[in-house]
Design a protein that fits this description.
421 residues; 84% helix; mainly alpha
Length: 421
């Protein structure tokens, strides 16, 4: 079985090579990012880190919007690439950056206007939220630029961009906290890191701003495609972010900090595997545009993600004490009982995320809005059943199982429909 799996994966050498490049660079960036969290967890303590974790959950929730921007951009850029219309990419780059920066300003202003209710709900100071809100002015544009890198299949540049962001974040974070800025320093470092990523991406894409060929951008097609994308991404993102926000609301600061640490550890599995989906997406989109068979690319990607994530979840189940002690320290040993199940939930979400990207890249989007029912079910479950952290993780795992089962049923149904013509 293992030999058959390895043979299937290695058949497509280009997929394996590019997947390995983006996976390794993303994994390296994830390690640096998590060292940022581990460092902040140790330097700020559970209560202080609970504030950082809660505000990061807001940023993670916005990943639905950020992933939508990157996914939609990658889709249309990959189509231009498939049609060999490279001179039109610069025009799309200029126009999309202008509109998306305005979106960032809107989010920034909305956050400032909502300071009091956010502060009251999360039990976080208004100063913390204000400093954190500056990230909205840059993060949306960064996602758009990364969509261009993904759509052009510049995976090395995409990986380098993510690494550069992570290096700035941990360097600035540790430096500012040591200088006495505390939680505010940890939050300000996030904005600095995205500014660096913005500048680096612009440098890589500079050549596409030369010899620009203006053309009429089909905004209706972009917005029509964006709707199912944002709904699907909102669903998957809400599922793995709302739990941290709700735990911060319902539990004491130290328990919320412990849970935030457990969530960060579990999400290592999810974020590391995202690179495979990012490589798969433009390839399927390009093959779809050229009317070529894209199923083998999906199946190989599925085997890779399932194998990697389930292996990682097994490590979490068997050696939780070692993982926690190495990364967060003994002060967080209270989360040992929940790490195995939490790791499994994130592995299942990783596979679900790959399936969602498969549907989006191949244009099969009609049923995706229904996925919003799953985060609603999660919120209801945690709202009424949150006596322990373990109970919260069980609800998340149940949601993950249900979501993955639904997606596989949709995939099989789609295959049957396609065969029947």
């Amino acid at each position: 079985m293992l030999k058959k799996l390895l043979t299937l994966i290695t058949e497509d050498k280009r997929l394996l090579k590019q997947g390995s490049i983006l996976f390794s660079t993303t994994l390296f960036a994830s390690v640096i990012n998590y060292f940022y969290h581990f460092s902040m967890g140790r330097m700020l303590g559970p209560a202080g880190y609970g504030i950082v974790g809660a505000l990061f959950a807001i940023l993670y929730f916005l990943i639905a919007v950020l992933n939508t921007i990157q996914t939609v951009t990658a889709k249309f850029v990959s189509t231009l690439k498939a049609d060999n219309k490279l001179n039109q990419i610069g025009h799309l780059l200029e126009k999309s950056n202008e509109k998306i920066f305005i979106l960032g300003v809107i989010f920034f202003v909305a956050t400032i206007l909502a300071l009091k209710p956010l502060s009251d709900f999360l039990h976080v100071s208004r100063t913390n939220i204000t400093i954190f809100s500056f990230v909205f002015l840059v993060v949306f544009v960064v996602s758009n630029l990364r969509g261009f890198l993904q759509g052009l299949q510049k995976f090395t540049a995409l990986g380098a961009n993510v690494i550069f962001e992570a290096v700035i974040k941990i360097s600035a974070g540790i430096g500012l906290v040591l200088l006495g800025f505390g939680v505010n320093g940890a939050l300000l470092a996030i904005t600095f890191s995205f500014i660096g990523a913005w500048l680096l991406a612009e440098l890589v894409l500079k050549k596409y701003r030369q010899n620009i060929t203006p053309y009429e951008i089909n905004s209706k097609a972009i917005y029509a495609y964006s709707i199912p994308v944002v709904l699907a991404m909102s669903a998957i993102t809400a599922i793995y972010t709302l739990d941290v926000i709700l735990v911060k609301h319902f539990f004491q600061p130290v328990s919320a900090g412990h849970y935030a640490a457990a969530a960060i550890l579990a999400k290592i599995i999810f974020f590391a595997s995202m690179s495979i989906s990012q490589v798969m997406f433009p390839k399927i989109s390009e093959l779809k545009t050229k009317n070529q068979d894209y199923e083998p690319t999906f199946r190989k990607s599925l085997f890779i993600v399932a194998g990697l994530t389930l292996a990682a979840a097994t490590v979490y189940a068997l050696e939780p004490r070692f993982v926690i002690n190495m990364l967060f320290g003994s002060e967080y040993f209270d989360i040992i009982p929940i790490m195995g199940l939490f790791g499994l939930a994130m592995a299942l979400f990783s596979i679900a995320y790959l399936l969602i990207n498969y549907f989006l890249s191949s244009g099969k989007t009609k049923f995706l809005p229904a996925l919003l029912l799953f985060p609603l079910a999660e919120v209801a479950g945690i709202w009424f059943f949150h006596s322990t952290l373990s109970e919260v993780v069980k609800i998340i795992t149940l949601i993950a199982i249900s979501l993955l089962a639904t997606l596989f049923v949709a995939y099989i149904f789609g295959q049957v429909q396609q065969k029947n013509g």
